[in-house]
Amino acid sequence: MERTVTSRNSALKQIEELIQQLDAISTLTSSIGGKTARDWAMRQEFRCGCWLMENVKTAMSTITRNLDRSIWRDLMQKSGMLALMDAQARKQWDNNLEGDDIPEISEANILSTFEQLHSSKADVFERGIINVFKGLSWDYKSNNPCQFGKKIIVNSLVDHNRWGFRLNWGWRRDQLADLERMLFLLDGKPIPENRNDVTVRLSEHINQQSTPKIFDDAYFSIRYFQKGSAHITFKRPELIDRMNDIIAKHYPGILATR
């Protein structure tokens, strides 16, 4: 943490000095008819904005915010907290970072932020399970409105047309990825990178099939249908029991008949 803050402050100081140097050089070249850095430092026909060529006050404000935003994302990734968040929570975190009022990178801010995140990590994880649970459709008898059963049915996971099936983008796809991540965490195993999560593997499976077949994975099997729905059958009942325990914790009495 100390190295991150020190390096960040050193980089910002050097960037400010660089902006001042470019401004002085532009003044010199302009005085002899050579125009400014905006003209001679850009590739021909590819001129675009560059904060290094703005006035120091305006440039440093934006550059500092952009740098801090990237550092916060890196710290969050390394902390492991993103793995505990569902898609909704991760989106909220990203939206907060995209604002203009992000906290400055400092030891005090890093400590307070991650102390707060650490103290709430159990709640964050459990909220992810609850959000997956609440996102289920109760239009099917297989979906018990009080708990996760051995099988759940979801709508709009796939799309079908004359060219065949494809996996839909959007909240349902995110929900399936969230479900897999929760099962990995409950099982005490490392979470796969998002480039190889269940939605990526399912999409590859769908693209290779001319007719719908069952997709088998470590934690569940998925059978999808032309109307867009999918039957997800769980393979690890003990993990489903643990998810239901979390639901019961948040909704006391709801699993009384389990």
State the main characteristics.
258 residues; 2 domains; alpha+beta; 55% helix; elongated; four-stranded antiparallel beta sheet; 10 helices; two-stranded antiparallel sheet
In short:
Pfam families: DUF4942. The chain is an alpha+beta fold and 258 residues long. The chain folds into 2 domains: 2-119, no CATH class; 126-250, no CATH class.
Rounded mean pLDDT is 84
- Tell me the β content: 5-15%
Number of helices: 10
* Major beta sheet summary: 4 strands, antiparallel
The ordered H/E elements are: HHHHHHHEEEHHEEEH
Low-confidence stretches: none
Strand order of the largest sheet: 1-6-5-4
Count of β-strands: 6
Domain DUF4942: 64-252
Organism: Rahnella inusitata
InterPro entries: DUF4942
Pfam family, one: DUF4942
What does this structure look like?
Helices cover 55% and strands 9% of the residues. By secondary structure, the protein is α+β, with helices and mostly antiparallel strands. It has two domains: 2-119, no CATH class; 126-250, no CATH class. Strand 2 (158-161) and strand 3 (164-167) form a beta hairpin. The radius of gyration is 25 Å and the shape is elongated. This is DUF4942 domain-containing protein.
Lay out the secondary structure:
Blueprint: H1 2-31, H2 37-40, H3 56-79, H4 81-84, H5 87-98, H6 107-119, H7 121-134, E1 151-154, E2 158-161, E3 164-167, H8 171-186, H9 198-208, E4 215-216, E5 220-224, E6 230-234, H10 237-250
Antiparallel strand pairs: 1-6, 2-3, 4-5, 5-6
